[in-house]
Amino acid sequence: MAVIELKNVRKYYGALEVIKGVDIRVEDGEFAVFVGPSGCGKSTLLRMIAGLEGIDGGDFLLDGRRMNDIAPDKRGIAMVFQSYALYPHMSVAENIGFSLDLKKVPKATIRKEVEAIAEILQLTDYLDRRPAALSGGQRQRVAIGRAIIKKPAVILFDEPLSNLDASLRVQMRAELQRLHRDLKATVVYVTHDQVEAMTMADRIVVLKGGEVAQADAPIALYHRPDNAFVATFIGSPRMNLVPVTIARAADGKAEVTAARLGAIHIDDSAMPLPTGPAQLGVRPEHLRLAADADGDFDSEILVVERLGVETYLTIGSLDQPIMVRVEGDIAMRPGDRARFSIDRQSCHFFDMAGRALPRA
Amino acid sequence: MAPHHAHNPSKRRGADLSAYATLSVISIFCAIPFFWVLLASIDGNASLFLQWPRELTIDNYVRIFMQEDGTRWVLNSLFVVGTATLIVMVLAGLGGYALSRTRAWWKRPFLYTILLIRVLPTTALIVPLYKVLLTANNWLGGVLRAIFGNGPAREILKYVGFIDGYLGLILVLATMQLPLALWIMKTFFDTVPRDYEEAALMDGATMLQRIRRVLIPLALPGLGAAGLFAFISAWGDFLLPLILLSSPDLQTLPLGLFRAFLRVNTIDYGFLAALAFVYLLPAVIAFGFARRFLVQTFSGGVKG
User: Fold this and answer.
1) Architecture of domain A4-233
2) Do the domain assignments include residue B225?
């Protein structure tokens, strides 16, 4: 059992407040991902949970027990470092067994446990090697082995895949998820990569400037972002944000007007949008190429990126570009003009401060 | 014109040849004194000139260790320089770690200030240094005489005295070598990520365990390099033992060599050369041992 609760947690560096009253709850066995741009405080928060950074305000509870002042090794928490931090002067086996060795566990017992862990992580053939003689993926697995041999209730990962190449990263993502299923430990995982967050997490905590921007299941963040920051951070390519004016049309629908793109009418009778200036958020996948007759607006195509399975078109103007994702291979050239339609159901609206305007 | 020549293989071979010839001449020029020392030391009839020995002998070495006080000089030198090196390594290890890990405004000024100790010529400082050590020595002598009486106090002072005692020379030698060692260790620890210590902390290591099991093994190359510089530099120091030591039992190798040179009758070049060779050897051996640490320390720190 390991439920993590952060209650109004704060951290200062001198006069600078870097964590500004964060409330997070991670359920037992959950895979939680802290995600955000660099400098958002996600690593600091992780290190506060680990005990490597002090907590200046608020409480950190583990299963209801206050942990603020408990030493790092007494919290039942293990951590995998971004650099792996494998001791270069010890063999793989010594690295994995170091924590048990410090506890004066008999050598034979350590050897048995290390071998069991090596079996799980496919490291059996490398136990006598030094870390310098391992590949990036193997070092990563040693770092994980060193964490799980302690049978921790909570495992913390600090950007563990950032030093691996793209294909290995995909493979390790799957391995980490399998490991999480087998170990049933609570995991807190820090990354700046929203794809990693979306694919692995049970719950994503999006952080911005030391505050929680939103915490929810990955797909909920995609469909119902609370604010423009989360809306543009989750999803790739990012959501288009277009300044618009909302007015009330004669038929009672909302008339949404954007410079250059013209006006569209949206039925908001279930929950009327406030009139005035706002931002329209629409994801690239919710814009479509339309037949000449219908469609909402036409635009010049500025950039064409043909990936085969899909094509990205950049339209609008260079100072206000709009990205459109089209299925399949579309043979278009920059300079062509085309007509586009907007999926009304998938439009998001934000006020000028970036807060989401409620929609039914 | 020049680039054209560079493409011509025969010209290039000529340039290579002249480069190697020049380098060879320089190497021979540098190596000849060492060669002379080695040859003269085993020459029964050595002179001031480089010559092939007509008869090979180890008499000179036998004389150093059997008839003269050679063994004592070597042991004194090893003890004084070895202890000073050890002190430097311990202090530079701890101090370098602290200087690398703490964030303080005075760090830079401090580091540059201590380099001054290294930059100032010892000769210029010798008078005030002697005065300070003498005052300390007189005070210590007074205390020891009061407790143990005259005779035993003199014996104890031979070890812990600041003037004409091992301790004074050891401390001064260590002080001279500490600044550079601190710089080396501070720079070295800068390249050792904190992650190692934090990982050890998470693994449940106490402060002492972190130092012994993680930090010292990681710092070994840096400590080796710092120790080597301290040893070689202190080993080569001549002025400080000359000023600070006078008792025959405390003489070190460079002093023995110096006094042998000053003897009134004709100069025995064979004996001097043998003594010089004995003096050279430890520095060369120390370098051989620590060479790989040097390479590791000055080419990029710890590789995980």
Assistant:
1) 3-Layer(aba) Sandwich (3.40)
2) yes
- Contact criterion met (CB below 8 Å) for B114 and B175: no
Q: Write down the pLDDT at residue A222.
A: 95
Structural domain spans, chain A: 4-233, 240-350
A4/chain B closest Cα distance in angstroms: 18
Comparing CA positions, the residue from A98, A176, A88 lying closest to residue A137 is: A176
ipTM of this complex prediction, to 2 decimal places: 0.84
Residue type, B5: H
CATH code of the domain containing B215: 1.10.3720.10
- When divided into structural domains, chain B yields a total of 1
| Residue B131 structural domain | 71-267+281-298
- Segment A69-82, tens digit of pLDDT: 999 999 999 999 99
> Which two three-digit tokens encode residue B89?
């390594």
Domain-embedded: residue B61: no
Q: What is the pLDDT of residue B300?
A: 56
The DSSP secondary-structure symbol of B248 reads: G
Length reported for chain B: 304
Q: Which residues pair with A25 in a beta bridge?
A: A5
CB-CB neighbors (< 8 A) of B304 in chain A: 83-86, 88, 131-132, 139
- Residue B22 lies inside a defined structural domain of this protein: no
Measured between CA atoms, the residue of chain B closest to residue A100 is B203
Instruction: State how beta strands A240-248 and A186-191 pair.
Output: unpaired
Give tens-digit pLDDT for A131-140. Answer: 999 998 899 9
Instruction: Indicate the fold that domain A240-350 takes in CATH.
Output: OB fold (Dihydrolipoamide Acetyltransferase, E2P) (2.40.50)
**pLDDT tens figures, B52-93:** 777 788 888 888 888 888 889 999 999 999 999 999 999 999
Question: Residue A284 has which token pair?
Answer: 């690239």
In order, the DSSP letters of A272-306 are PPPPEEEEEEE-GGGEEEE-SSS-SEEEEEEEEEE
Chain A residue with minimal CA distance to B214? A87
What is the tens place of the pLDDT at every residue in A164-191?
A: 888 888 988 998 999 999 988 999 999 9
CB contact under 8 A, B303 and A52: no
Strand A262-266 and strand A276-282: the pairing is unpaired
A78 has a chain B CB within 8 A of its CB: yes
Is residue B106 included in any domain, yes or no?
yes
Q: What is the pLDDT of residue B7?
A: 59
Cis peptide before A237 (omega within 30 of 0): yes
State the pTM of this model. 0.80
Taking residues B184-195, what's their average pLDDT?
91
Shortest alpha-carbon distance between residue A38 and chain B (Å): 19
Q: Say which of A73, A85, A150 has its CB closest to residue B195.
A: A85
Lookup result for tokens 């979306």: A198
Average pLDDT rounded to a whole number, residues B161-183: 92
- A72 touching B (Cβ < 8 Å): yes
